[in-house]
Every structure is written in structure tokens, then in C-alpha cells.
User: Fold this.
Amino acid sequence: MSPKSKPAPKRTASKSKKAPNGTAGPTAVPHADSVLTYADGNPQDRVQFFDAKLILKPDFFFTIRGFTSFSELVKEAAGKVKGVSYTQFDLSKIRPRIREVMFLDTADFRLYNNSFILRRRTAYQDGFPIEDPEIVFKFRNPGVALAASVDVRPKIAGPYRVKFKSEALPLKDQVGGYRLLFSHNCIFPLSSVHEGDRTNLQTIARVLPAVAGLIGTQEGKVELVNSTLVEEVLMDLGTLDFGKGIVAKCNISLWRSLGDHKVMCGEFAYQTRFDKREDVHEIAKQRVEELFIKLQLAAAGWLFLGTTKTGLVYQLRGNPPQAHE
Assistant:
């Protein structure tokens, strides 16, 4: 299959002023005076979540001790930020959550090359699935206006959730700063897709119109990226309180390849939500950012710079795609 160029997202504006192409902070959204819409007239989604993420080296995560040790680093960093408190959980009394993660793409990684990610997640307990698998479809890119312009809503007869997030990662080559990706996500149950062959590209083009322009009429199916299933071990570490009503649970997700259980990486993350830009107090916003910097410095030896969890899966065969992360 030969790669195809991504079609320009459809959008309209009632005013000539355009939304900015980028941002320097987690609360940035298109200009308040802009009225941009999708093809059906619905207004474009706005950023409502800020995620801080640290990709961690796999070396520390062979026992529960790695999670406990990193929780101590979070406590240390939080103690250096005025107005931030951290409540640790007793990890000896917490059972980790287990999920199977499956990435799907064309043989030439056409989705990922165009900033799209398609994956299936299944929660397990005692070796068996405990709920309907869910599809996670996202457009992730450094451009906030571009991410907002992509309509990720599915055409399904069932419920779905849309989340538009700014995701902070360390700089690619050094600690002490951060870069932003904007992740426009849609999540829905697999059972809402009623076709018999859900991996068929024509089915995917119908259910996810955002990628229809990347899929030809004669093509077959998506396939498992690099033939790799991921086992995710998710452990909640504690709760961060930034004041002004901003509270975030933090966790570490450990990714292992199913079969040999080789640890690929860990990811520490915390997420804050805001419904309106004016709801975010400047002092609390500064604390969220400052903690992210302080934690990088405290955990410098743990950090796996220059990648994301998804990026690691796509690079397993040594043939990295044209990533936008």
C-alpha cells in the first residue's frame, strides 16, 4: 500500500481571525472570539484537560518497589513547590489494574504518519476480561488549532466520549523544560461497531470519517502494529492538591510486551481538568507547571527522553514511522 496525503480538515469560521497555531502553556485554547465549526455546524472542541507525562526507563520496574520509590520522588518534588501537597497511597494495599492494549494501523503506518492513533483497550482481572473492550481514537499533534479542527466523533449507534487534552512532555534532549502535544481523543465501546469484520479499512473509514481520506477503495484491513500486544500495569500512587480547587490523581502505567513480558517503559502522569479558561487560577496553573519541572530534576536518572509509549511500540522493529510526537 502506498502512503496517501492527509486531506485538509473541514472547518469554517464566522470571523476572519484565526486560532493560534501553537501555545506556551497548558491552558491555551483557540482565541475566545473565534467561532470555528465542524462540517455539521457544531463548534470545535476546546482543550479541557492538561496532562503531565514523564516516560520512565524500564530498569526500575521489576517489582512493586519501583512504584514506591517513584512515589517518594513525587513527595520530594511536591515539597519544593509552595502550595502543593501530595497524599501518598499505601501501595501494599492497592491492587494494580491490568489492561491489554492493541495498536492497529496499515502496513505503511499511514494513520500514525498523519498524527492519528487507533488502539483497542481491554481491562482484565484474574486473567479474564471484565468489561467491553473500548476503542481509543485520537489525533495528536503539536498544533492546537490543527488538533481542534479534526472532528474525531465516530458514526456509531451508541455512546462515546470526546476529550481534548494538552499533554506536557519533557524536552526531547534535556530535563528542566517541557513541550506540548495536543491530543483530540474519542473513546467508545467496541460493541457499538456492528460490522462482522471490524478491522476492514472500509468499515474504519465509515465509523471514523476523520481518516476516510487516507483509505482507498480497494484496500483490505488494518493489522497489529509490529505484531505486538501490550500489557499495561496501572498503579495509582496518590493525590496532588494544587490549591484553588485543582486536585489530580497521579499514577504510573507500566508497559510490557505480552508473551515475553519484556518491560518497554513506565509512564508517570497526572491530569487536571478545567471547563473554562477563566476557571483556571493563574497561581494554581503555575504550581502545576512548576511541579512538572521539579519532578524532572528530582527524577532525572529515571527519565526516558525523546519518546512516547506509542512511539516505542511503533519503533520496535527498528523502522520508525514519520511521527509527529
